[in-house]
Write the structure tokens for this entry.
Amino acid sequence: MKTDTLFYTLFQEFPRIFFELIGRLPEDSDRYDFTSVEVKQLAFRLDGLFLPKPTQQNQPFYLVEVQFQPDDNFYYRLFAELFLYLRQYQPPHPWRIVTIYPSRSVERAQDLQFEEILSLNRVTRIYLDELGEAAENSLGVGVVKLVVEAEAMAGTLARRLIAEARQQLVDTATQRNLIDFIETIIVYKLPQKSREEIEEMLGLNELKQTKVYQEAFSEGKQEGKEEGRQEGRQEGRQEGRQEAKLSLIPRLVSLGMEVEAIAQLLELPLETVQTAIQATDSP
């Protein structure tokens, strides 16, 4: 599972969740665009950047990194990328770094070199297993917490988040997209279960018959995004992890993900993803 790609997709589709996570107002997301930037000298790409919109000159930019595996070189690489980016682009905004870990045990702080810089207010380190009350009180933070929730409790948390989404989100398309994303997380956490089993576990069979959900479906279809999603669900009726992955491809396309990112997230060959997309686009 490519967890960093999953998070970047979440922040791109629901940027308010990121700003809730770092303790800022969700409305602050309206001042930013989530993007990726290539640093040419070493031919690497910063995949998680929140850049202020042109009218927001006084706002900082955020470099977001998700790290779910221990890596002694992580901070060496992170700060090297940051300062190369500053050198090349010389942005007119102060920098901020946000690192996201499943727990403190994964972090390799390298205090000898980075103790002082990590203590700056410009650096925010988030440990998902310590979100506690924030995850209980916020729908968005709860969705982030779901990524690291124990398998035995993931279904319960997902059902609670789906219920909250139905209650709190007025916009039907946003509600549908967030519920779909919650379902996507559960598919990854429980790969041994079929799509039908997951829908039953989360109570989605009944939900997808409701007027609100059907209205969101119709709106998306008018935009030309839902035909692939519908066909993906039909394919996903077969049991097995491979079939579940294939059924997710149209949904991830509708969320705006690039083909390469989908292949990385699903751990599928690029050709397989391209073929699946072509199949859903065919009349």
Remarks:
- Residues 151-168 form the longest helix (18 residues).
